[in-house]
Amino acid sequence: xxxxxxxxxxxxxxxxxxxxxxxxxxxxxxxxxxxxxxxxxxxxxxxxxxxxxxxxxxxxxxxxxxxxxxxxxxxxxxxxxxxxxxxxxxxxxxxxxxxxxxxxxxxxxxxxxxxxxxxxxxxxxxxxxxxxxxxxxxxxxxxxxxxxxxxxx
Length: 153
Known about the structure:
The protein is α/β, with parallel strands linked by helices. About 45% of the residues lie in helices and about 15% in strands.
């Protein structure tokens, strides 16, 4: 597929550099979407998209512009759900795919955790695990695999 594009929900993405590395190796364009200016690798395949600072503006831009052949890198489960509905692929920054089979339970878990945090009354109930070298390595391999799959379709 010639229209493979990697979209990065960039404001809190810890794997931008890894996305660049894999995309350049595959000759695939990358669109880095954020609410404010951020440095990106200067390369003809990599472009920056700055949206307004409105609520969900970056998510809206990504969801409105993806298509089959796109892969979106995001930790935002609701954005992943939106892009899956548009026929794009989605992946977490730890290399886990968001799919039509797992997105529903991820949304439900997200809602439960939000309720727990709201009821915790200042107690620390924990957050995501720290990002590790193993996570980074898994992400690189997963992104490579997804791009290869999209190119074959």
